[in-house]
Amino acid sequence: MLTRIDHIGIACHDLDATVAFYRATYGFEVFHTEVNEEQGVREAMLKINDTSDGGSTYLQLLEPVREDSTVAKWLAKNGEGVHHIAFGTGDVDADAADIRERGVRVLYDEPRRGSMGSRITFLHPKDCHGVLTELVTSAAVESPEH
Amino acid sequence: MLTRIDHIGIACHDLDATVAFYRATYGFEVFHTEVNEEQGVREAMLKINDTSDGGSTYLQLLEPVREDSTVAKWLAKNGEGVHHIAFGTGDVDADAADIRERGVRVLYDEPRRGSMGSRITFLHPKDCHGVLTELVTSAAVESPEH
């Protein structure tokens, strides 16, 4: 069951400049940074608020680290902007299976590693009215509801 | 001060079909619908979670109601997808003034009417690394922090 907006993924050409923009304009601070080699991105997570399911909502700023990454290709086509949205769930495996049953293409056979040790999968944007949609189960499940 | 992700605005060609997709795929229900004549859209708000500042985060599904609306033009260029993101604040006037001081173009001289009686303004996407960014103050300010 999807219980929160976990993050909004924003593709950018220059992560440091984009982090600086969000800090200078809104006062948002970096909560976490990492390189995800599998996804081919360097990323910064800015925590915006906590959520009623015991999780949080972040902006995820994404800079490609290699030209053949999906984010690099997306940027070349679209320019900087919102790349995907992500819903948080206590059980990404169960939700991905349910959603696949409903006829939506799930892009991974098994969830992969996402930010901060989370487990993630993606839904095909053409099956989601144009929105690349991610499902996330956090590494630290904090809520008793989960 | 921006204290939450208030909503993600998603442009679609057919609001009823898109609402049906979100209900059938994820179980999300419509919290509110309205027509905003000034913005030229028919919209549905799907509440996803409550937030730590006393507000909530929604998906806002937007269908243009006239061909000269900004959302209609955006859809013609981009197809369906994420149109904008919105941050919630207790004082959209003060935040818009601060952000304008920092050199970001604010699109309205004064905030206008948004969903559910909120007051909103937008920041120019070219000044925000490609992200059309909205600031929202809800009509019902529920949190003692505000």
UniProtKB/TrEMBL annotation, chains A, B:
Q: Where is the signal peptide?
A: none
Instruction: Identify the keywords attached in UniProt to this record, alphabetized.
Output: Isomerase, Metal-binding
Q: Which GO terms describe its molecular function?
A: metal ion binding; methylmalonyl-CoA epimerase activity
- Domain VOC: from-to ranges: 4-138
Q: What GO biological process term is on the record, naming one?
A: L-methylmalonyl-CoA metabolic process
Any matching Pfam family: Glyoxalase_4
User: Could you tell me which InterPro entries the record lists for this protein?
Assistant: Glyas_Bleomycin-R_OHBP_Dase, MeMalonyl-CoA_epimerase, MMCE/EMCE_epimerase, VOC_core
Q: Which class of enzymes does this protein belong to? A: isomerase
> Which parts of the chain are coiled coil?
none
EC number(s) reported in the record: 5.1.99.1
UniProt-listed PANTHER family? METHYLMALONYL-COA EPIMERASE, METHYLMALONYL-COA EPIMERASE, MITOCHONDRIAL
Recorded family membership = Belongs to the methylmalonyl-CoA epimerase family.
Record-given protein name? Methylmalonyl-CoA epimerase
Instruction: Please name the source species.
Output: Streptomyces tagetis
